[in-house]
Structures are given as structure tokens and as C-alpha cells.
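Give me C-alpha cells for this 510-residue protein.
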Amino acid sequence: MRIILISTYLLLACSWIMNAQRISERTLDNSASQSGRTQDPSGSSRAADEAGSEAPVKAIPHEVKNWFLVDLGTRADTVPIDTLSQGFQVHMPAYRASMANVRLGNLGAPWQAAMVSEMALAREFVFAENLSYFFKRPEQWRYYNTRTPYTNLYYQYGGPKRRSEEAVGVLFTQNINKEWNAGFDYQLISSIGRYDAQQVENRHFRFFSSYSGEKYEIHGSYVYNKTDQLENGGIIDEDYIFNPEEYEYGQTENIPVNFYSASNRIDNHQLYISQALKIGNILVSQREEESVKLPLGTALHTLHVDRKRRVHRIDNLNRYLNENPETFFYPNIYADSTATRDSVYYTSIKNTFQLKFNEEANALLRFGLRAFITNEIEQYRFPVPPRELGTYSEPPVYLQGDSAFSTTLIGGQIFKNLGEQFRWNAGMRFYFQGYRSGDSELTGALNSQFRVLADTAQLFADGGLYLTSPTYFESRYYSNHFQWANGFDKVQTMRLRGGAHIPTRRLERR
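Here you go.
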């Protein structure tokens, strides 16, 4: 682990030195041309104008801009760069995302929010729901534009050594030219856990690039996520915790647990491409006798491919079963008594076409409008009952089933995002084709800003009405230890939220 970390630091340091040298040479060449000097092949410079004075060397200022793509990629929501970011001291990802949660203890272990308002409305892949902080969505990915190469390194270590926890973060990005940026983001969380068989290793890699031209913009990301986690099923007897003086286990890692070879692995590949073409022109007055030309609207296309695989394994299942046949952890074994090999696959291919009319084009009412249509194709692969069940010594022949579904929705939104005093939006979505036909969403939000003495305060509110169909694996599933077939109805959900926020005081009340 430390060898990988040191090697990464050395590679980034070499890259930074090379880029700094190239920028310095470029700066010197520019200053030489500005002062009338030329460079001969031998490396010496001579003044073209002996009477002229030598211009001072100008350093390139460090400036980093970054943003998220929100509202299906139609709006860039900028955020400030700060290496001492807010919440840096909160080392546990679960508490960065939610102030109230239920978790398994060690760094990187599964967790879920305990507040209903923060739970997901739809669970396309329920097996990764408890790792949602690691499997981030496209609207949570940052894009950058920099004048000089930008590197951010993060390392966290917690002891003791035999039960250590480590987190590594490496971000590097730089501009290829004024409009084109590229970079990568790597994150690693590794922990052994307080008890035996709790080891966690989560890896995240994202390569990203963006181009922002006068008429055309494109953002792209390739993401690979992998989580490897041991699952011990908890300690065998809680009395080991409540009355430790009656036992001689010593350290907590010596306390017996239910499983020592049970593991859960999830692999995730994502490809995201968002393209925008600005159409038309309109002259907008900004100051007296000053106008700027802005696009009338924007046509957008977004492609998002998301593939997940989950494998749950228990080696030597028959040994665990023979040791405690009456108190075995799982009440049911449906296919294989020698080992558990449950695997499921999920693939989503989503295409969205949008047409957006900018606020500047609506001089009368001063709000923008966008309309979109989305088609999603979902494919599932899952275990099905074998033709012949296994025995205590012979496993069955595993079989896989598959299903594919398609659904299409239309939607729209009106919005006002310009200005600092008052912003608002209202939108809707309606699914009219496919297995989610009849689902709908009505959403709205507003934000107001005003002065309070020497500070600036904000009032915000948002909410929505949702009608949602259950996902495939919520309705039906088969594995070695669980199976169900449910006929759930659509779920009706209403969410309302509001609060006040004072950024300069880092105060927020909801």
C-alpha cells in the first residue's frame, strides 16, 4: 500500500516539475518576444532594439475553476476550490453525506442514511445502495478549467497498525489549451476492521475531459469502481461484548464471528458523454451602450452507460453448516450446500435529448425553458433455480437468467437561474412507455438571498411529488439463501424541505 502511495507521489512530482519547466520556458519565450529579443541556435539572445529596456518576466497566475453538471447536464453549477475544504476533519464518508446514519463501523464499510428524506426514491441496483457514497452519479462529478496544472493529494491513516485504516486521494488536471481540459481522480479506502473478517478495500478511478468552445461543448468521463468487502455476519454471542471479563479473547479481533470466508464484491463501469450545441444569437444589454451576443438556445444530447456486477461468495459453506446445523446463520439453502456463488449483473444505457431556451432570450418574462425526452434500456442477469440441486459434497450446475426492459419519459422545466436575489425552478417528468409507464415527478425549488447586518443570508425550499414503480430486484430475486416474488404497487412519495443558510458563518438550519 505504502509502495503504491510513494510511487504515485513521485510520478506526480515528476509531472509537476516537467510542467513547471515547460511553463517557465513558455513564459520566458513570450517575454523575450515582447521585449524584441530573439533566440539564436547557440542559445544566446540579442536585443533587436538596443535602446529598448528588457521587459520583466510575467508569471502565469494560478487559477482553477470547477463545476458540476446539474439538471441533466444543462447547467454548470460552479463551486470554489479550497484545499482546506469544509468538513475536511470529518474522516468518515458516512458522516460527510449524512449526519444520521446506520453503519457497520470501520472506514469504507456499508452504511445507509437513517433519515427518510435522504433515502433514494428508486433503487436500480439494490445491492449497491449501501455504498452510494462511493458509486457517485454524474451530477456529483467535478470538471475543471485551469491556467496551470492542478494537483490535490490526500492521505489519511488511523491505527493501531494491526487494525489500521487508510484513505488515499489523488487528483490531477490541466488544460491542453484554453478550452480543453483533461485529468484523473483516484481514491482508495482500505481498512481491516475492529473484528475479524471485516476487511474493506474500495477503489475509485475516473478519467475526465471537457471542451468548452464558443458554439460547442462536450463533457466526458470514464469511471471504474470496485469494492471488495469481507462480511463476518456479526459475532456469534453478544455476551462476549457485554461480559468480556468472563472470557479470555483479549483483543476484539479474537472474538468468534459467524463467517470468515464470506465476501461481497461489486464492479462498476460507467461512461458518460454530454454534448451541447449553442444555436441562434441574441444581443443582450449589460450596461449603458454596451451589449453582448449570447446564444438563443442550446441543443443537448447525453449518453450514460452504467454497468454493475455483484458477486457474493461463501467458501466452505458445508463446514459452517456442519459445525452448527441447528443454529446456522441462514435459515434456508436453496441450491448449493458446498458454497455460495450468487452473481447478478445490471446494465443501463440511457440517452437524453434536450432543447433549452435561455433566460436572456425571454426579455418579457425573464425565465428559461427546457424540454427533454429520455429513453433507457435496462438489462439484468441473475441466478435461477438449477435443474438438479447440489449435495453436501457436490455443487449444482449454476444457471443464469436474463431480462431486458425499455422505458421512455418526457419532461420539461421552467427556471430562473440568473441574478443573486431570487432564483426558482419548476419541472415535471412523465413516463409514457415501458415497464415504468405511468410513473411521474413534479418538482420545484426556490432560493432567496438578502443582507443580515454584515452577513448575507439565504432562504431555500424545495420539494416534489413522486409516483415510482418498484425496481426489478425489489420485485423478484433468487439466490442460494433468499428468494422472493412480490407484486408491489407504485409508491407515492411527497418530499418538502426548507431552511436558512449563512455561508460566512457556516450556519445552516433545516
